[in-house]
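Quick illustration for those who missed Monday's session on complexes.
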Amino acid sequence: MKWVDLRSDTVTQPTPAMRQAGLSAAVGDDVMGDDPSVNALQDRVAGELGFQAALYVPSGTQSNLLALMAHCERGDEYLVGMDAHTYKYEGGGAAVLGSIQPQPIVQAEDGSLPLDLLEAAVKPLGDPHFARTRLLALENTWHGRPLPLDYLAQAGAFARERGLAFHLDGARLYNAAVACGVPASQIAGHFDSVSVCLSKGLGAPVGSVLAGSRGLVDKARRWRKVLGGGWRQAGMMAAMAHHALDHHVARLAEDHRRAATLADALRSLGLAVDGAFTNILFVTVPDGRQAGLAKALEARGIRISAGRGARIRLVTHLDVDDAGLERVIEGFREFFA
Ligand SMILES: *Cc1c(COP(=O)(O)O)cnc(C)c1O
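Prediction with pyridoxal-5'-phosphate bound:
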């Protein structure tokens, strides 16, 4: 039986066609700038998102860190959501490795950072008491929810007026674009730099891309080397990522549809459900029943991440089809019958 794994959209297996694209890729030494497949991927993402240049890197964590280190100097500060991935789930890299101080901001429910809170957090210029506020970082999608398009424009204007650089952790940028019905460039265009994960809903095995100006990407490339992330014949993976961009963007709408279907089905069982704006939803399982649910589903070939509280995150992706989804709904129905 094929597993239905709802723990994350990072669990996808490369499709046969994607593997083939990797096998037949032209490669070279990327540290020398010689890998044609890496170069093609970088040029493609830069062009598609409306930037001068882009850099293919091993992970979203490294991509965000490189952006912060390229925008900020030692002793600078960045404004970031209190629960943002960059702040909370990346090992404190900005502070540890970049000597960049985070200024966390309590996020609104929709993932936006309220402008009045941002305003109050910007430090006075030229006063040596303070770190220099240098950058504003947002995350889109936020727990699977696309940031409102008009908020992006407002936050961008705010950053520009105060001379702040503006970075997007767009790990799931393409989910946001598909859900909003706009080209990814329309979201990316508000920012000075954007990080995109290829290994999440797009289904590539490894990697993220950081896009920005030529100067910014050159700085990021140097920091990548310093962090040990210069790589050689990475073209096989880059070609698989290229394949993902060719074939797996429009289909994200299917993941979103399945998440919405699952949300409706779980609600009809009397469970509290939120999210399902894109491919992520949260179901609240009554106290003490999470472990039992996980076990019952596992017996049906379904994996969920239980064990971190009553609210369980469920993620749809490339390897969850309609038959798999039906099995999940049946599994919940039987357990809660
Ligand atoms: C996954 C993720 C990252 C980091 O990507 P990795 O490749 O796992 O390092 C960054 N931001 C968000 C919002 C993510 O979901």
